[in-house]
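Researcher: We're teaching a course module on how sequence relates to structure. For the next exercise, students receive a sequence and then see the predicted structure as tokens, so they can try to spot secondary structure elements on their own. Here is the exercise chain.
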Amino acid sequence: MSSADVHSAALADLMRAAGSGCMAHAYLIVGDPRAAGLAVAEFALKLVLCEALEKPCGRCRGCSLVDRHQHPDVIWIEPEKKSRVIGVGKREDREADPGIRYGLIEPLSQSTMSGGWKGGVVLAADRMNEEAANAFLKTLEEPPPRTLILLVTDAPNHILPTIASRCQRITAAGGESSAPEPWRSRLLDLLAGGGGSGAIGRLGMAARVSALFVQLEEAVEEEVEAAAADDTDSDVLKARVSARFIEVRRSLLQELMLWQRDLLAVVLGLPDEALRNPARADALRREAAGLSYADALDRVRRVEEMDLRFLRNMSNDVVLSAFFREIPCGGVRSR
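Model: And here is the predicted structure for the students to work with:
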């Protein structure tokens, strides 16, 4: 199923649920929080906040306010700090650091402005730390009446199981990566070029990918600074650069994950048509030579570990060197 088909199916499922009066109180929307995932969240909000008989009309005041993220009965929260973490919030400094407790949980418990539904949206929900997630759990278990909670993430595996199990899952788009060009092609060129199974080859590959990430961060900084107003505070600018870099880096990690899945497909003997990167099938076959099924699965798992290491603010060099050093390669298992 294509990404467009998956997206259409998600909207159709929501419309059926709303039409039958069976909307869940909470949805885990799997998709890019800036693209497909966000669009599905906005659509879900319009289903309960649209003022027309045929919902969603996309034209009424309710729909327009949702589009502009200005509806008084919808609370939006996303990671804003340089750390890109959604914390629990500080009682003594709730203005500067509202976190999940004062930025979402408390407002959801208050009466609506319109007397109808209330919505709460957490963008990049995987960025909630454990304390914030545990505080949010009670709201999911006992939500206020006529409340729609939407968690949007492109990394559902990083959502606590206790949170995910209390939400109905909706996939907003297919598995295609949203990594921007030219970075996607450059990464794939490096992977297709190979580095050999020896220690020197692995370190060389890690160094080349790390250099790519350095170039990416420099390009992101130029992009963010060019788009910012002249009087933008330097700390705000740094936070925006960091947030954008983390976002694009994650999309490249998704490409790396898809490459490992292609290797797994080759190991399983699947045809080229089943690959995400069929044009690079020859390179994939060379790299997959000698890999067992367990080896290929281990490589997928180690990409997931990379993302967790980045979440702990480990450096590019450290994370990438560890990954390329530890992955099984050409039938040689890591120790």
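Model: If you want an answer key for the exercise: The chain is about 55% helix and 10% strand. The radius of gyration is 22 Å.
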